[in-house]
Request: fold
Amino acid sequence: MRTKNLLAAGVFLVFCSVAAFAGGTTASFLKLGSGARAAGLGGAFTAVSGDINAIAYNPAGLAGLKKSEAGFTRAELVEGVNYNFLGYSRPAAKGTIGLGVNYLNQTSIEGRGANRETTGKFGASDTAINLAYARPVTARSGLGLNFKYITSRIAGESANGWAVDAGWQYKALKALSLGFAVQNLGPTMKFLDEGSSLPLTARAGAGYMLLDNVLFLFDVSRQVNEKRTVFSFGSEYAVFGSLFMRAGYLGEAAAGGSSLADTGGFKAGFGFRLKRLNLDYAVTAFGDVGKTHRLSLGAKF
Reply:
């Protein structure tokens, strides 16, 4: 009971603190999400439970995991830029503990001087290390918290920071699930004494299962510091027990995305599930550079 009360208090404090941090942003890679399943659904994943990738959307989704799970995602974004996610979760302490690492790497950037002369090449990277805990609080609801330590590096300079995510999920009906989450609540990160806010986001979502094989999802998220509202839709059709087809759309109510992580448009993907193994693939629009491909592998044990 004491653990449950502490978790509920932590989630409540994070929800109540959103307005205090409202104020451009850095660490936009935190909005890239994780798994190919979620990407193929347009990122509408706030109400989805029982998936290791919930750590990147709503930590309360980890409360639905009944077995240990590991997952890896690889995305090639543009030439020389790749994005990876590695996660692991296991039932523990009347709930679920999750660990995850997000890593964005750009191997070669051409430097330019004041007169546009070439000054050599350098690299850049962003990393977030996640530690999450979620647990059911009633037969129909669950809460989750996620702490992340963030590091950004470019051309020999670095910045460090931290943030907290909190989430809640509720099974309103047998076929209807609801979710709410606050992400990236934390202080500014500083490069060379210049601070920028993290991409603080509040998101709500709903999922409805039709005929036991068609899942419809809807999310709306408010990017607090950018003052933008984003809508996303997704659907998943279980062709048979081991094959899933997916489609999604990410659209913005306020135009002017601040980074490639904000790119909207249609998404699509598919997945295979064989006993305790799963393979997922998604293709998504990525700004003016065309399409990107995301591949995920997962295992339950």
Summary: Residues 5-23, 254-258 have pLDDT under 50 and may be disordered.
